[in-house]
Recover the amino acids of this structure.
């Protein structure tokens, strides 16, 4: 394999910068409903993506054909695109310097799913169905099981040589039940510390050392209650308490994406959008207070077990914890080498491509809210009239991330510090600057990370990301099924 | 594009030769995609993806169904994939009347293949010049325009399907898509306008009209007024309708109905929309990166009415889901959904099993013009671009999105001024039922979600400012 990588690297000409990602994947996906396997498939992919920076412009090409003849043609395609663009560009691209690294990172598994027979996995899946089915009112139980075994080499013409081997497992547990409110669905959030239903590692990270019994029961219990819940009311500008799994999607959408330096610079404007806090960070020479003291947010790809765990990004930059917001003040952005050069800061390891097929892009990895000085239960007790939302569902976000709406799987009315009515169909919405200023309580005892899922780029790249935080309170509007 | 027929035949022969194989199906998908992603007035990324691979489905004699795929087309990798499919088939049992498709001759032919587009991918220089010119043209439209951006995609795709029932289908096509965004600034405001188009012939690309529309919309939108939260008559442009119809189509998929989107479950035959709404699917009406005379199981595609005059008539069905409903596939088995850990790009995705999907939906024309819609509006809003509009609850149909670009207040039959961005918060079925007027359709939307849709006028839509 090293011969192949060296063969491609040797094609760099003159002052050209060239980097290569050679990757292998073996993915397994088993989907099931009511103890029946409805989909079961595997796929294997291997291939190479090459970036060429020639005279200040990028060219990129990827291929599954690893014959030397085809690899030569692939490099030539990338080079040609770079050269054509460089003849027209007025602002040549420059890269911030990074240390040259040689490393091999292999995530070990205590219970290695690659060694567990398929029959045993199927037996577990069918058992999890039975464990969710705690009542005849549960009309559908849903268990999806997926694993990814990935091996990646990153080599660059600057001398960086990195190999990364990572296993990922996730289990999606859901159920549909009938009750007084009709038919309702509930899905267990992915990740978290209780329960864990996925991440980087082996089966030991699932539930209690591979045992998902409690989580399955919890799924059944949740859906039954939800099927007897009330429709959420419409309540304008009220205190809303968000649980850690709701926080995952909230921090992903209103802090994570707008802190990506490409978005800040307007490079995502055409579809995804830009950001309302452009020019307001320490990286841009203007650290600005945009939230209360409880707004501290980090990006840290190096946290083990999370879905997006990594120690080097797809430019070979060592990853580190980045403080995006510190006690309400915007500090760092997430960078590529290119955006770091533009802003005059050090790269922090945020470039990723979903697979070898794609050009790497800046994207959040493990973005999470810091902790506060409250206990989660104290926040509820301290809320006189408000709402408690649990389990983020589906987002809709303004293109500058200035306004957001995110639905939750369930909600509760809070009256005099106690949970009362149980709601379905809850959507919270707020304007981001006002919301960030309104945050007045943050727990320090229940911070968790989950998988949020992410899509970015053209063509669209999916991505494994982790997000989360502790229980938090802020002012937002609650929207139920009726008119506001 | 390289010919992989021999590899496909090898896979079929080996899969058929397995002792417990009752039926085998092999699917080969190949793509050559060029993307030019531009922003802040220049091309930021030029990139090519070259991909090909085989997906193998095996139906065993005891009615097990397994699937595996590989992009490594060596003998060993294909044989490994066959073994994987057989191993998985032990655990997935299907109805005894399930079968892979049987040969059916398509009555229609797909001609969406343009050699000049393929040449444009290979030569690159000309399309680079065209995109740079588009960016410059957008900037030159008006001194208020400060930024131009937008992705351009060109793709050549091909697929081959063979199975042991005698299906032997081979198709290829080309597709392009271009989007333009213009940003205008005044002393107090910054607004956007955009436009997009798609087709299969390179000669159809008309960058000048896209630039003009995007820039005009951005400039006209400047210095908008904040509106009051209210129920408005809403006129959606074709671009905004594309995302609305995309979601309605999504709700009709049986695989979504049985999971977390049950809103239209068991609603076949019910009036779910205005009588002015007819939504259909036909890959030969709508150029798309999967357009063809056959779907990805080798079943002839057809013009299917999903919603006809507001009545939910038919859901998309591949051969697997058709068996569940004791009927036949209606030629909507496609393979390009997101798979775990992987992503989609245009063209055929061999690593996915077929699923019922509507990638080439369209909404039938109405008889109204946008001018007539405006003239009949007392208290309303015209919207050019509905952004990030999602159904946030698949059981109730809660629907929300941003009035991002080209939004104007209408009073007593006239556009009176631009408005600031605001949020639509309503219900997707209520909106579908409240469609009052429909105009002439065109290709519109984003990227592979480009579909053919008309502008529509909808009454009583809840809009809130922010």
């Amino acid at each position: 394999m090293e011969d192949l990588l060296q063969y491609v690297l040797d094609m760099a000409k003159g002052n050209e910068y060239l980097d290569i990602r050679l990757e292998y994947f073996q993915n397994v996906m088993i989907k099931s409903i009511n103890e029946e396997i409805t989909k079961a498939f595997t796929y294997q992919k291997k291939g190479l993506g090459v970036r060429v920076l020639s005279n200040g412009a990028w060219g990129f090409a990827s291929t599954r054909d690893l014959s030397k003849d085809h690899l030569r043609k692939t490099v030539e395609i990338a080079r040609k695109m770079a050269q054509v663009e460089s003849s027209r560009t007025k602002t040549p691209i420059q890269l911030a310097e990074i240390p040259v690294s040689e490393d091999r990172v292999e995530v070990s598994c205590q219970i290695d799913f690659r060694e567990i027979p398929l029959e045993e996995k199927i037996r577990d899946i069918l058992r999890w169905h039975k464990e969710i089915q705690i009542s005849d009112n549960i009309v559908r139980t849903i268990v999806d099981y997926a694993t990814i075994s990935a091996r990646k080499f990153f080599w660059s013409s600057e001398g960086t040589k990195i190999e990364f081997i990572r296993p990922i497992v996730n289990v999606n547990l859901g159920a549909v039940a009938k009750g007084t409110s009709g038919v309702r669905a509930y899905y267990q959030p992915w990740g978290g510390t209780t329960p864990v239903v996925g991440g980087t590692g082996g089966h030991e990270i699932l539930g209690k050392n591979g045992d998902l019994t409690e989580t399955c029961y919890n799924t059944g219990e949740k859906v039954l209650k939800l099927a007897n819940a009330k429709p959420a009311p419409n309540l304008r500008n009220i205190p809303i308490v968000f649980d850690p799994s709701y926080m995952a999607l909230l921090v992903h959408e209103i802090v994570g994406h707008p802190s990506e330096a490409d978005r800040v610079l307007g490079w995502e404007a055409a579809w995804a959008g830009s950001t309302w806090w452009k020019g307001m960070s320490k990286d841009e020479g203007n650290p600005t207070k945009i939230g209360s003291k409880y707004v501290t947010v980090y990006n840290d790809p190096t946290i083990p077990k999370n879905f997006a765990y990594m120690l080097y990004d797809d430019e070979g930059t060592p990853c580190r914890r980045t403080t995006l917001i510190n006690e309400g003040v915007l500090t760092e952005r997430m960078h590529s080498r290119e955006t770091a050069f533009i802003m005059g800061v050090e790269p922090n390891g945020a470039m990723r491509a979903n697979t070898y097929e794609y050009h790497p892009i800046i994207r959040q990895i493990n973005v999470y809210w810091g902790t506060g000085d409250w206990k989660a239960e104290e926040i509820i007790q301290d809320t006189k009239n408000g709402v408690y939302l649990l389990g983020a569902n589906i987002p809709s976000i303004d293109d500058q991330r200035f306004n957001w709406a995110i639905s939750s799987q369930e909600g509760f009315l809070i009256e005099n510090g106690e949970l009362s009515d149980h709601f379905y169909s809850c959507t919270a919405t707020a304007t981001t600057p006002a919301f960030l200023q309104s945050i007045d309580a943050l727990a320090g005892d229940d911070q968790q990370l989950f998988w949020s899922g992410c899509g970015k780029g053209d063509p669209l790249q999916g991505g494994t990301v982790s997000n989360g935080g502790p229980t938090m309170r802020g002012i937002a509007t609650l929207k139920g099924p009726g008119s506001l | 594009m390289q010919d992989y027929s021999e590899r496909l035949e090898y896979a079929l022969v080996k899969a058929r030769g397995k002792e417990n194989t009752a039926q085998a199906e092999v699917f080969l998908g190949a793509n050559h995609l060029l993307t030019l992603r531009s922003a802040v007035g220049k091309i930021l990324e030029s990139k090519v993806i070259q991909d090909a691979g085989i997906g193998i489905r095996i139906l065993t004699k005891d009615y097990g169904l397994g699937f595996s795929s590989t992009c490594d087309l060596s003998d060993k990798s294909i044989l490994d994939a066959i073994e994987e499919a057989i191993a998985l088939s032990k655990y997935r049992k299907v109805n005894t009347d399930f079968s892979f498709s049987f040969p059916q001759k398509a009555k229609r032919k797909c001609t969406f293949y343009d050699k000049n587009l393929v040449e444009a991918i290979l030569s690159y220089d000309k399309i680079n010049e065209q995109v740079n010119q588009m960016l410059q043209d957008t900037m030159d439209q008006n001194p208020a325009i400060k930024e131009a951006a937008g992705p351009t995609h060109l793709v050549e795709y091909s697929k081959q399907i063979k199975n042991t029932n005698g299906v032997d289908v081979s198709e290829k096509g080309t597709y392009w898509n271009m989007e333009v965004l213009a940003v205008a600034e005044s002393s107090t405001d910054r607004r956007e306008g955009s436009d997009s188009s798609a087709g299969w012939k390179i000669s159809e690309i008309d960058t000048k009209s896209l630039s003009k529309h995007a820039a005009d919309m951005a400039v006209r939108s400047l210095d908008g007024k904040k509106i009051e939260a209210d129920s408005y008559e809403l006129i959606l442009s074709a671009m905004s309708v594309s995302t609305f119809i995309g979601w309605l189509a999504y709700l009709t998929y049986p695989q979504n109905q049985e999971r977390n989107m049950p809103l239209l479950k068991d609603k076949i035959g019910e009036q779910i929309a205005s009588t002015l709404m007819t939504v259909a699917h036909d890959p030969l009406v709508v150029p798309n990166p999967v357009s063809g005379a056959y779907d990805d199981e080798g079943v002839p595609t057809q013009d299917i009415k999903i919603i006809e005059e507001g009545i939910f008539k038919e859901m998309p069905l591949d051969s697997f889901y058709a068996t569940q409903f004791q009927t036949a596939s209606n030629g909507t088995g496609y393979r390009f959904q997101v798979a775990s850990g992987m992503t989609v790009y245009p063209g055929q995705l061999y690593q996915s099993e077929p699923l019922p999907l509507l990638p080439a939906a369209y909404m039938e024309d109405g008889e109204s013009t946008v001018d007539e819609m405006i003239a009949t509006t007392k208290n309303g809003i015209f919207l050019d671009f509905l952004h990030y509009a999602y159904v946030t609850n698949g059981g109730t149909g809660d629907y929300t999105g941003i009035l991002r670009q080209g939004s104007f207040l209408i009073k007593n039959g006239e556009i009176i001024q631009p408005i600031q961005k605001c949020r639509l918060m309503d219900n997707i079925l209520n909106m579908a039922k409240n469609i009052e007027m429909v105009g002439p359709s065109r290709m519109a939307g984003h990227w592979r979600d480009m579909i053919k849709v008309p502008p529509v006028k909808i009454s009583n839509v809840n809009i809130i400012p922010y």
